Amino acid sequence: MTQVAGVPSSRRVLAKLNGSWHRNALRIFLFVTIAHWAEHLVQAYQIWVLGWPRPQARGILGQFYPWLVTSEWLHYGYAIVMLVFLAVLRRGFTGRALTWWTVALAIQFWHHIEHLLLLIQSQSHSYLFGSAVPTSILQLVLPRVELHLFYNSIVFVPMVIAMYLHVRPAPAEQARMTCSCGGHAGVPDLAPQAG
């Protein structure tokens, strides 16, 4: 690992991700999250509005690449990416925004556990609860499409609340911020200006 002035490069990257790069990292993360959530919404629309059979309701990308919908590795990989980015970008938050971001992180941690269970079952061909297919714990209560739409929604909502509060910090929160998202230190605010 390379070092500059005694600071490991990974620590410098973390500091930048929660400092000068925080705004853009959040924007990219939000875009990826919305794109993923949109896929779940399209899949739900295909089932509930268009009346498609569940195996044919694969979202947008799944229509062109059907293996995306059935790949437990891909779903688990996305769950890990979400978990990592929620954890890594957490340091840039303060106050109320930090509380909401932590809620999203905690929910995503459980969502990741559910995907880990699905991945282990798909690899071992040993299914929980006497099921014929990989089954997560809460899938016993909700069908898989609805469950993952629910999971993505309950992670997304506190994440967006956190971002909203983050770009509109209270004075005490802004004083503790390490990034320019709240407009301190003469840096323009991420939030749209009124007027």
TrEMBL record:
Keywords: Membrane, Transmembrane, Transmembrane helix. The chain crosses the membrane at residues 73-90, 97-113, 149-167. It comes from the Bacteria. This is Uncharacterized protein. It comes from Actinoplanes siamensis. The lineage of its organism: Bacteria, Bacillati, Actinomycetota, Actinomycetes, Micromonosporales.
